[in-house]
Structure formats: structure tokens, C-alpha cells
Design a protein that fits this description.
The complex is a heterodimer of chains A (63) and B (298). With 63 residues, chain A is mainly beta. Chain A is built from one helix and five strands, in the order E-E-H-E-E-E. In chain A, strands 2-1-5-3-4 form a five-stranded mixed beta sheet, covered by helices on one side. In chain A, strand 1 and strand 2 form a beta hairpin. In chain B, helix 7 packs across helix 10. Chain B is 47% helix and 13% strand. Chain B is built from twelve helices and ten strands. In chain B, 40% of the residues are buried. Chain B is α/β, with parallel strands linked by helices and 298 residues long. The chains are: A mainly beta (63), B alpha/beta (298).
């Protein structure tokens, strides 16, 4: 299971491993968020290990 | 994905450029885009004194960081809007950033001046974002004039500007479409040149640069901006961009090639300007819109 920290502080879990698949499952647009693990950004093609924790960073600002 | 330049593991993929980059080569790419924007639009040169409008968010802090690193003479200008915890945090981010990099800043504190945005919203029958826009424009122009800056730089990026263009096209608003240029020249005695050096970069790219360079910015959105139409336009453009990478760049760039000239306001058609009879700043009416708002607080 992968733990996903969402931008609003919520925590989700997913069985998907590939970053692009996780984003799709969570309904995240690839142009609107960055995905990080620790101090590294992850590209959508990467597969991550079971038990990992990743962060979703929203980049959309407005008003 | 591998870095297009060195073949190392990539940290970011830019589908619109059909490229991925490691942090080192992404930084190079990013700086090249800013240099190209400054040069292509003749935004400023080394002799100019630049005021960077900062909010504590990623775009304005990235811009300030970069222009300073590139060797330009910059001063940050921050307005404490008095919007609760959001303003406290953003104020802290700006002060910490300026201290860390040894940068000069100008701070305008609306609560101290007696007109924080929430109070203005309560007393004036207008949306907070609209009031905030008027207040920011007023203080940015005033500070740039009083401190004798040559240029005012803002952190607007390609997503901001293509969303604004979409909104203005949907309304066919000539007055706003005439002001889409990322380099707006000086206007009258008080309005300094306004430039947007991040215009060639998307929000994803600016966010990636902030992350890779450890720029500490406020990630929370302004609570007053919930439901803002600009977010709807950005959402639509991001969906289009996913299906057709490069759409935002094309939409924005082709406007200048094919349509911007249709909305250009000739000097003889420009509205007559007055000096505000309250504050003395330039205005379309005898009393400027900012001073008229303050009148309504009394």
C-alpha cells in the first residue's frame, strides 16, 4: 500500500504503484500537481515501492 | 524518464517540450526561459531599479529569487492584507525570505492603516478579490512612484495569463484585452512599466523550480479566493493541456501574433486622466477608485 499525503492535509492510501496511475485514481491533473517523496520530485512514469509515502503538492494558485 | 541533457534520472517531465530534466538541467532550462522573456519583450536591463511585488506565494518568491541571483537591483514589495492566519503566514514567509537572501523590502500593512481587506469587504458591497485588486494596484503604483522604481515586476506565469486571456475572450472585453501584454509601458506620470518575466513558464514549472531550490513559500490559498473564476479557467486549460500539450503557450502566443493589435488603444483614444483630489495619484475620475472605497468606510 502507498500512503498519499494530499494538499488539503488528508491522507489517502492506494494499491497502485506507478505515479501516473496514482494521479489518475485520485483524479489529479498532471499539470496541476507535483508529486514528491522526501526531497525528490517524481515523474509520472516512476513506479514506487510498496509501503512508500508520497506527497501531492498543488501548484495552482489564483484569485 | 531520463534527463534530456545528461541522461540522469529526471525530476520533472515537461510534455509541452517533449522533455524531462534532472534538477541541474531544469534550473538551466528555467533560467533560459526567464532570460528569453526579459529579452524578447525588452522588459528591463541592468540599469533599472526593479520593484518585485511579492505575496509569499511560489511565483513571486521564485521571481524575486531569480532576478536577485541574475544580478538585477531588486526590492520586494509586500502588502499585509489582514486576512487572518493566511496573511500572518505569508508575511512571515516574505520576511524570512528577504532575511535569508539579504534583500530589501517595502511593507504596507493594511490592518495598521485601518483598512484590512475583510473590513473593506464588510463595508463595501463588492467581492473581496475585486477590492483586493484595486487596493494592490493602488499601493503597488504608489510605492513604485514614491520610491522611484523604473519597473514593477510581478510573478504572473503562463497559466495565470492564459486563464486571464480566456476569461477576457469569453467576455470579449476590449478594455482588458488591450492590457494583456507582459510588458505594459509607463502610463502618465505615476504608472511605472509593468512586466511579467515568468510568462514563458507554467505553474507546474514554477512549482518545480521552487521545490528544487528550497524556496519556502505559503502553500495555502487565500481563503477569500475560493470559487474565483480564474480557477475555473485554469482547470479548463489544464484539461486541454493534458490532451494537447502546448495549448496554453499556443493560445497565449498566437493572440499576440494574430489578434492583440485589434485591441490596441491609440494614444489619442486614451481616456483623460486626472489627479485624485484626495491622494494626488493619477485617476480616471476626480477621485480615484481607492479613495472612493476608503470614503465608504467612514
Amino acid at each position: 500500500m502507498i500512503t498519499v499525503n494530499m494538499p488539503d492535509g488528508k491522507v489517502k492510501e492506494t494499491k497502485k504503484r506507478r505515479v501516473a496511475d496514482i494521479m489518475k485514481e485520485l483524479g489529479l491533473n498532471e499539470n496541476a500537481v507535483l508529486v514528491s517523496m522526501g526531497d525528490t520530485l517524481l515523474t509520472p512514469d516512476l513506479s514506487i515501492e510498496d509501503g512508500s509515502e508520497i506527497n501531492i503538492i498543488s501548484v495552482v494558485s489564483g484569485g | 524518464m531520463k534527463c534530456r541533457v545528461c541522461g540522469a534520472r529526471a525530476s520533472i517531465t515537461l510534455r509541452r517540450h517533449n522533455a524531462s530534466f534532472c534538477p541541474e538541467h531544469f534550473n538551466e532550462f528555467f533560467i533560459r526561459q526567464v532570460e528569453k522573456a526579459i529579452k524578447d519583450y525588452s522588459m528591463f536591463d541592468w540599469s533599472d531599479k526593479i520593484m518585485v511585488c511579492v505575496s509569499g506565494g511560489k511565483d513571486s518568491l521564485v521571481l524575486w529569487y531569480l532576478l536577485h541571483k541574475m544580478g538585477f537591483d531588486t526590492t520586494g514589495m509586500y502588502i499585509n492584507l489582514g486576512i487572518g492566519e493566511y496573511s500572518q503566514k505569508s508575511h512571515e514567509k516574505v520576511l524570512n525570505f528577504a532575511e535569508k537572501h539579504g534583500l530589501k523590502s517595502i511593507i504596507v500593512d493594511l490592518p495598521e492603516m485601518g483598512h484590512p481587506i475583510p473590513l473593506m469587504e464588510e463595508k463595501i458591497n463588492r467581492q473581496a478579490c475585486s477590492i483586493c485588486g484595486t487596493v494592490k494596484r493602488y499601493y503597488f503604483n504608489k510605492a513604485a512612484y514614491e520610491h522611484k522604481f523604473d519597473v514593477v515586476a510581478t510573478g504572473h506565469n503562463l497559466d495565470d495569463e492564459s486563464a486571464r486571456l480566456l476569461g477576457n475572450v469569453l467576455k470579449w472585453s476590449p478594455a482588458y484585452l488591450s492590457k494583456m501584454d507582459p510588458n505594459l509601458p509607463e502610463d502618465g506620470e505615476y504608472m511605472k512599466r509593468k512586466v511579467k518575466p515568468l510568462i514563458r513558464l507554467t505553474e507546474l514549472e514554477v512549482g518545480g523550480f521552487a521545490f528544487m531550490n528550497g524556496i519556502d513559500y505559503i502553500r495555502e490559498e487565500c481563503p477569500e479566493s475560493k470559487g474565483a473564476t480564474s480557477m475555473i479557467y485554469k482547470d479548463v486549460l489544464n484539461s486541454l493541456e493534458t490532451e494537447m500539450p502546448g495549448t496554453k503557450h499556443y493560445f497565449y502566443g498566437e493572440f499576440f501574433k494574430n489578434a492583440a493589435h485589434l485591441f490596441r488603444v491609440e494614444e489619442e483614444d486614451a481616456p483623460e486622466m486626472y489627479k485624485c483630489n484626495v491622494c494626488g495619484m493619477e485617476s480616471f475620475m476626480e477621485t480615484c477608485s481607492f479613495c472612493r472605497m476608503l470614503e465608504r468606510l467612514k
